[in-house]
Amino acid sequence: MKNKPIYVEISIKENIERVWEATQNPTLHEQWDLRFSSITYLPKKENETQLFEYKTNIGFGLAIAGWGKSVGTFQAKDDSRTSSLHFGTDHLLSPIKEGKGYWKYVPEHNTTKFFTQYDYDVPCGAFGKLLDRITFRPIIGWATALSFDVLKRWLEKGDTPSAQFTRFFTHWIITFLFFFVWIYQGLVPKLIMMHPEEVALTSALLPLKLSDAHMMVATIGAIEIIFGLIWILYQNKRRLLRLQLIILPLLTISAIIADSSVLSNPFNPITFNLSLIVLTIIGLLPSKDIPTARSCKRVR
Fold first, then answer.
1. Distance from C-alpha of 27 to C-alpha of 249, rounded to nearest angstrom
2. What is the per-residue pLDDT across 108-165, written as a single tens digit (0 to 9) for each?
């Protein structure tokens, strides 16, 4: 079964000339497009096809290099423009062998509708197509949409791509950190291990029987796991960060009231929770205006 082409569309409140320049100039293009680390146009004579080389860093000192060429551009009577591309790579680590696509620019009042559609061949036959459908194609489609939103914010607000990507990755690193912390704290010491210190602190804070204390610790663990999952599922992370600025100090105070001797332990509630509070504040600062792939239309 043939995989569907990738389609991404966004409206940018800017004239077509600025959108064209930001996307066709390789020095500008590589700044906002997450899919490419560098784009280099090769020398050409007049009326020749424009050839270019691209490179995508994939981490650990590795990079995928490829080739591309501008098949042609077309300007219609309504001032809309289309730029067609042919691209590919022989790199063994690349999930793309060769592909074709286009960018189209349609002026609409004070905005430019900018959209792309592209498709590509993959290695390894039917297995490669299946792997592409469930892994790489969703990722590259998401990266295209996120990049389009970064471009939109850059042209409309002057928010540089580097600043946007810094906020984006800081935001999501902190999000996954809190997801892990709450899941781990609820699952390992409370549900799996039923750590004696957790039971003792609960018993000291609440006058409960031992069996009831075990049940309370398990309940708290389940609540922490749910809160950890909410960090991934809930979109408004600013609310979670604000809520956490209330929860963490309360947990710290509760632990000290239950047993002040815990303050002498390594990584005690003061040092551990204070670190999480500082990270919460750091996460709150850049979280107001995060670029997102959701702002793009993904179906033609």
1. 47
2. 988 999 999 999 999 988 999 999 999 999 999 999 999 999 999 999 999 999 999 9
- Which residue would you say has higher pLDDT here, 75 or 67? 67
When mean pLDDT is compared across 12-16, 71-75, 93-97, 228-232, the lowest value belongs to 71-75
Give the SS3 label for residue 106.
strand
CA distance 52 to 230: 44
Check residue 168 and report its DSSP letter.
Answer: H
Report the alpha-carbon angle 201-204-210, nearest 5.
85
Cα–Cα distance, 300 to 117 (Å, whole number): 9
Q: Please choose, from the candidates 102, 101, 99, the residue with its C-alpha nearest in 3D space to the C-alpha of residue 82.
A: 102
Q: DSSP strand E in 205-267: where?
A: none
Distance CA 70, CA 34 (A): 20
Grouping H, G, I as helix, E, B as strand and the rest as coil, residue 5 is coil
Residue showing tokens 């950190």: 177
Q: Is 17 left (phi over 0), alpha (psi -120 to 50) or beta?
A: alpha
